[in-house]
Amino acid sequence: MRARYNMIRFPLxxxxxxxxxxxxxxxxxxLADVEGFEKIVRPFIGxxxxxxxxxxxxxxxxxxxxxxxxxxxxxTAEKWGEVVNTVxxxxxxxxxxxxxxxxxxxxxxDWLAAELGRAELAKRGSRVVLRRMNRSEYNHTIRDLVGxxxxxxxxxxxxxxxxxxxxxxxxxxxSPLQIELYYDAARKILDRALxxxxxxxxxxxxxxxxxxxxxGGDRTRVExxxxxxxxxxxxxxxxxxxxxxxxxxxxxxxxxxDFRLPHEx
Length: 265
Description:
This protein is mainly alpha-helical. The chain is 38% helix and 9% strand.
C-alpha cells in the first residue's frame, strides 16, 4: 500500500501545482496604420482642428498636429478617444467654425475608432506568464478534481486586486513563497484524498424519500446522522414512491446537498 501510494503521490503533487497555472497565447502587437493616418487623419486635422489645437493655441491643453499615431500608448489612446467622442457628438469643430462634410467627419471618426479597437484587442491578447488561479478558483478546482471538501487555499496570501477584481491575470503573479505553498497544499490534498488505513471505512447508506420534499425548494431539510441535509426534487413529479424525470433540463435535477461525510478518503 505504501509503495503504491508514493508512486501516485508525487505525479499528482505536480499535477495539482501545474493545474494552478495557465499561460495565455501571445498575439501580434498593434501595428500602426501609417497610410491611413497620413491619408485620413492628418488632412482632417490640418483643415478643421489645427487652428484651435495646433502650434499657436492648444485649447483644453490638447495639441493634435503632434499627437502621434501610437494607439498602443494609453495616454495617446485616451486623447484620440476624446477626439472621436467630440467629433461624433458634433462638439468639434465649434459651431462658429467651418464644418466638415459628414462623409469626411465619419471617415475620420471611423478610422480612429477602428484603430483604438485594434489596439485594445492587441493589448488584451498579450501574453500573461503563469496566470494562476485565485484562492477561490483553486478551492473549487480541487474540490471538483479530487472530491476533497476543504479549503486548501486558506493559508495562501490574499490575492491582489486589479480594477476592483481579484481574478485579473496581470495581477496574479507567482512568487517563490506561493510555489512552496502550492506544493504544501498539494500534499495535504493527497493526504485527505488517498487515506491509508488497515480497514476500509464503514459503508454509509442514506435513503431519501420523495415525500420528504413536500414544501419544495431549499426550505426542505431532512435529518441524517445528526445532519440537516437539503433535499430538492426540482420541478419533477412524484408518482408513488418515485421521483419522475421525464426529460433532461437545467431545472429537472434531483439535488441533495449541504452535508459532510464522517470519513475521509
